[in-house]
Amino acid sequence: MTAVNTVPKSQRALLSYSVEGLPHREEVLLKSLIRLLDHRTHQNWSWKAEQADLRVVGDQVALAAASPQPAVPTLTVAHADPQRGPFLALPLHTDALEVVLNRLGAMVVHARGLGLATTEVPIGEHEEFRMLRWPPAAVLEAPIRLRLATLMSNRPASVLSLQQRSPATRQECADFLADLHRAGLLERAAPPGALVAASAPDSVFPDSRFPAPARDTVQPGLLARIRNRLGLLPSGPQ
Q1: Residue 214 burial (CB < 10 Å; 0-12/13-18/19+)?
Q2: SS3 of 60, please?
Q3: What are phi and psi of 192, to 5 degrees?
Q4: Nearest CA-CA partner of 74 in 34, 108, 98, 121
């Protein structure tokens, strides 16, 4: 068994993985084991639906992949070795999973350092992003990040707006947004006014959803009788 990783979480890279084509039971077990191995792996791994740093696939997906994504390693989890790319045998064992995660994680980190990783999305200083949910502890290890996450929990923010509203440096704000994106916790905010017509209350555009009341629903003689009682009805022809 590998020794416990003593490197603080804040100093370990935050990486993501996606799962495709695995039986439900194996997928649930895989995610549980990765969470249990968090104190032993050299990187912090979190699940992401797509565009992750690592693709974990079943044997059928691996065989059907005609053009694997460049710079994104693919780990095949199956009973038989497909003889292509990294492979992890079923049934899953924690020690073997730890070894392959550390090896592939080192590859991803190295590719990032060379600028070869394709999952990175450039984050402009003025571009606003929305945090989808509260980040895991691995992302909030530094105290300043708790402040940044709190600021983003109420409204979208950009690198510059976070810097202006907190003691963090511009680089700390950019790194925080980048880690949120890698963990699948970030999305670009819609431009102001983009959803006004769709989200406006009915009182703003009353005729757009409800037809105007028909004017001929009043009985023809009702208004005449009211006017007659009030003495407003003009006298008839002489």
Answers
A1: exposed
A2: helix
A3: -55, 135
A4: 108
| CB atoms inside a 10 Å sphere around CB 38 | 17
Banded pLDDT at 206 (limits 50, 70, 90) = very low
**15 φ, ψ to 5°?**
-120, 160
d(CA 5, CA 113): 22
What is d(CA 130, CA 157) in angstroms, rounded to the nearest whole number? 7
Name the amino acid, one letter, at 33.
L
Q: Which two tokens stand for residue 130?
A: 């929305």
Express each pLDDT in 6-42 by its tens digit.
565 556 778 889 999 999 999 999 999 999 999 899 9
Strands 54-57 and 14-20 turn out to be parallel
Residue type, 81: D
pTM: 0.54
Helix (H/G/I), strand (E/B), else coil: 76? strand
Token digits of residue 2: 């590998």
Q: Compute the distance between CA of residue 16 and CA of residue 65 in angstroms, rounded to an integer.
A: 20
In 3D space, the residue among 121, 134, 128, 96 whose CA is nearest the CA of residue 192 turns out to be 128
